[in-house]
Amino acid sequence: MRSRRIFLLFLGACSVAGFASGVTTAFLSSAHVEEPLPDEGISMTPPTSSLALEGVREMQEEITALSWASSQKRLAVSAGAQVSLWTADLAFRQTLAFPMRCSLLACSDQYIAASDQELVVYDWKSGHYVEIPAVPRPITGLAWVADTLLCACDQQLISWRQYRLQQISVFRAPIQRLAVVADRCAIAVGQEVMLLQGASWHEVATILLSLPVRALAWSPDGRFLAIADEGGGLALYRGSRQEKRVLSEHIASLAWSADGKCFISIGEGGLTVWDTSLQQQAQTLYQGQEVVWISSNHVLCSNKKQLTLWKQNEKEAAL
């Protein structure tokens, strides 16, 4: 009888120790919110919409950058040593002669910023180029916040406003990707994504990843950040907390719809529309390098020397 009592006490002690260990593990997991969730497969739920090709334009040179200016209703396209302007339905408007082949473009209400080894700014209103002081190389990201241009230059984040350059932050390694919306900024450096916020762009959080970033994009309201990594992973974050992650093909570019209800990716897996739970809403096997969302149901993308216009159509409900 005594030996049985000792055995039961031993089991009870093991249970308490196991419970304490479980509590400790749960607490540590909740503290590291940037720890990635397990990968999930692509949803097999039938898409609720389809993508239809509405227009194609062939360029003489390979396309190296796209940017949509919503206020001007113009698409800026860099091909060769020229930046051409197009309407939403791919009607040509004019050509701007730039001094170099541009790998980055960013449009605001008044300016077009372009860069490869140098930074060039064109004024829509005056039709003239703006003189810009030299910035560090290489330039890896451009983005406008109202009338302020943010520029990722080597290990520095620099702002340009009213003809003045100002250094914002210096990072320990070269900046690879830059995404900005309103007062939120995401900086990809190696396998980390730093989140900056406010008028002074102070760092508020860091997302730790297992692989370097290929593309990232904010939703228009700043609630979600979509991140595609080098291993084909696609994740959605709310702040620094990962909501969900799926495995996809390698993604080259991401763009959000204006209402923030879905975003689109383009890459080796084709052109895909995702909702905020990472369910596929529409897909076509057309591959490309860059994509921009230009209206509620239209997107433009580039593939080498080709510009294509796609429309997202809601599928009819099954009878």
Automatic annotation (TrEMBL):
Residue span(s) of domain Anaphase-promoting complex subunit 4-like WD40: 185-237
Pfam families: ANAPC4_WD40 (PF12894), WD40 (PF00400)
Signal sequence range: 1-20
Keyword ATP-binding included in the entry's annotation: no
Record's keyword terms, sorted: Signal
InterPro entries reported for this sequence: Apc4-like_WD40_dom, WD40/YVTN_repeat-like_dom_sf, WD40_repeat_dom_sf, WD40_rpt
Name used for this protein in its record: Anaphase-promoting complex subunit 4
Organism encoding this protein: Thermosporothrix hazakensis
Source organism phylogeny: Bacteria, Bacillati, Chloroflexota, Ktedonobacteria, Ktedonobacterales
